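ASSEMBLY PREDICTION REQUEST
Request ID: AP-0331
Submitted by: J.K., bench scientist
Number of chains: two
Total residues: 504
Priority: normal
Notes: Please return the full assembly, not individual chains.
Input sequences:
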Amino acid sequence: MTQTENLTPASTGRSARLEVCLTPALIPLYNVEEYIVVIIDIFRATTSICYGIENGAEAIIPVSQVEECAAYREKGFDYLLAAERNGEVVSGFDFGNSPFSYTKEKVAGKTVVLTTTNGTHALHLSLKAKKIVLGSFLNITALCNWLKTQNDNILLVCAGWKNNFNLEDTLFAGAVVEQLKGTTLRTDDPAIAANDLFQLAKDDLDGYLKKTSHSERLKQLGIEADIAFCLNVDTTTAIPILDGEKLVKLVV
Amino acid sequence: MTQTENLTPASTGRSARLEVCLTPALIPLYNVEEYIVVIIDIFRATTSICYGIENGAEAIIPVSQVEECAAYREKGFDYLLAAERNGEVVSGFDFGNSPFSYTKEKVAGKTVVLTTTNGTHALHLSLKAKKIVLGSFLNITALCNWLKTQNDNILLVCAGWKNNFNLEDTLFAGAVVEQLKGTTLRTDDPAIAANDLFQLAKDDLDGYLKKTSHSERLKQLGIEADIAFCLNVDTTTAIPILDGEKLVKLVV
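STATUS: Completed
Returned structure:
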């Protein structure tokens, strides 16, 4: 599916689409150039980036490889360098993807270069999209309100875990589908499934997610406070958008 | 993830795994050689094959390409040749993947060569598995009873639609997870999600699936009778298993 037709809702006369890409491994099945893409990595990359941008970070530069991040040391910029792999800060870097590293005190007025196991990978596979924004429970309503103004196809890309499905990103996608229910957007099977799962989980997201196969792994990393933080809803309004190589605050 | 360690439950001392591969595009994420694989293509390939084997077909030979199927004309065997693409019988073939083509009258004592859009594709990507069996709602309890005797890792492979997620195969996977709940099998996030969706849908599978994005497409193909047939539960007990190039009846 590599044909690059400009299938805008206007050109086809059909309602715009709202679809869910359950893992980055499935991104090749989509013509991403037809969509506004929302990158989702709830634990913890997109949550932390949303928080950092809300807190006044000038920009956050997502890179795929640890080496790319490290190379910024030699470039003469006064950037903060953050790298996470398998839930832990990579040795030698300022911090990782914990939201507690993206407070006002730490990032206001600064630029952060960041690489993570899943979220930045999903973003880089989506680069041909019309627009790329980031979502988290923190800014979900602000994000959905903006999406409603776009009148274009939307692809919710779940970063997942190592290219496979995970529950938390899927639940978030389902929560977005829920907020966009009043529109004429046409959904697909993954969106239906994500929304049904969200309906099940919404009254106790934390409790529902405790049954996930990696909650034990996250607990062993000692990041339960991070997890709780990432499940706060509507505590921020800033929407990170990719502008060139940088994630910056979308001006609505 | 290409390392071929023999990670049997016995060798690792851990409980066997029960995992769900939501689409064939995700098969490369698994070391399939560590699993018994169950191929799932509810509408309609695995349903029809289960039905045909139950009805006394000697064997069903799954092939990937229409051309491979056609080539059997020249081989001098008295085989039936079946080919389906996009829900329709390919021109020039005896039939496709409608279960109504796999009755006793049509297939008893015969060998069928079959190619389909999704199911045979999923099977061919799983060839390194320890064993490959086929599942459908028709034989679900017989299948699960056999799986309980295996004491090995199980991977439920959803054929999906054109490499992407679909609801019906996921629901079936969730139904298998449900039946295997009394065991010590360790599940993953896709299995949890599939099972939760099955819990939602189980009292009215047909009604639930009407909201799927391709129910309209299936209706337009005029196969509503096929769909209803594929949702019958426990009407057969035969389990197709791959033996060499042929799917035959598993002798339990």
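REVIEWER COMMENTS: Residues 1-7 of chain A have pLDDT under 50 and may be disordered.
SIGN-OFF: pending second reviewer
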